[in-house]
Design a protein that fits this description.
The chain has about 300 residues and is an alpha+beta fold. The chain is built from two helices and 22 strands. The protein has three domains: about 100 residues, Immunoglobulin-like; about 70 residues, Immunoglobulin-like (Sandwich); about 90 residues, Immunoglobulin-like. It is flat and about 85 Å long.
């Protein structure tokens, strides 16, 4: 029992001495720096990377000495599970450099959600993404307002207090957004005649949540073509090759899921008489350019 107490006191004393040593060095800076050398002063046992390569850990006093041999800029990173990552570009001179860094203490969150991925916003700025419950996200200590977003689902907001080295579990139960759809297209007329100009028609379909999309195309009240595919929240692009018959066509778009159904329509015109000769002009231009290059090389 006595030996155990002595060990505890020794460890405790070492921690106090370590903290005192770091503070003393930072305050008074009593260091002899070798030429082209970096002396890093920070917290104990932090991983140090130089230009992406692992160099080693700071010692019990939070120090690490690195020799470079010549002048130049180097990218220094300090990493730890308990502190936020610190990155700095440092110029190493012939006089050497002392770099003193106080990394920000951190905890982390673990998300248990009914859907993934989950995008995390910290104090209204994007911070990271959870692909599944195995992921963790390191966060600075203190009180934070977090927003959690998953495509097609309503936003969840939570106030969370993060303590040093603490892992905070966050349970999320997302609810789907109400289904709606919006249509947009860049042009209302195209000509599928192979002239390389507007041979296809693109229709942008915007969804608020996941749904099945059906597209029915009518000419004079007669359905001429029909399509079906799975839609995702945000933009979905439908490309129609058209049919080789001039006329006005009604395009009816329906989005539905297990509980909702939304329908909207738009019109598009096919004009088979419009031919631009873009294909021929492009091929001829490329032939002229290629011939010119060959002529210059062989000249």
């Amino acid at each position: 029992m006595r030996k155990t107490l002595i060990c505890v006191f020794l460890v405790f004393g070492l921690m106090i001495f370590s903290e005192f040593s770091i503070n003393f060095g930072i305050m008074f800076g009593n260091y002899d720096v070798e030429p082209y050398t970096l002396i890093l002063i920070t917290e104990p046992f932090l991983d140090v990377y130089i230009d992406g390569d692992y160099i080693g850990q700071t010692d019990v006093f939070g120090q690490l000495e690195i020799s470079f041999g010549r002048e130049g800029y180097h990218f220094v990173e300090i990493k730890s599970d308990s502190y936020m990552v610190v990155s700095k570009n440092v110029f190493i001179s012939a006089n050497g450099v002392i770099l003193k860094i106080r990394p920000q203490k951190a905890g982390s969150i673990v998300i248990f959600s009914n859907v993934y991925p989950v995008n995390v916003y910290l104090d209204n700025a994007f911070y990271g993404v959870f692909k599944d419950k195995k992921d963790e996200l390191k966060i600075p200590i203190g009180a934070h307002k977090l927003k959690f977003l998953s495509p097609g689902y309503k936003v969840i907001e939570k106030d969370i207090l993060i303590s040093f080295k603490e892992k905070v579990p966050v349970e999320l139960n997302f609810h789907k957004k109400n289904l709606d759809l919006y249509l947009r297209n860049s042009y209302d007329e195209f000509s599928p005649n192979g002239d390389w100009y507007r041979d296809k028609w693109d229709l942008e379909i915007f969804l608020t949540t996941f749904a099945t999309i059906t597209i029915d195309i009518f000419s004079e009240n007669e359905k001429v073509e029909s399509y079906r595919f799975s839609g995702v929240p945000g933009e979905n692009i439908f490309k129609w090759n058209g049919i080789k018959k001039t006329g006005e066509y009604l395009v009816v778009v329906t989005a539905y899921n297990e509980s909702e159904k939304v329908m909207k329509d738009t019109n598009v015109k096919i004009n088979m008489e419009k031919y631009t000769y873009l294909k021929e002009i492009t091929i001829l231009s490329l032939f002229v350019i290629f011939s010119g290059i060959v002529y210059v090389i062989l000249k």
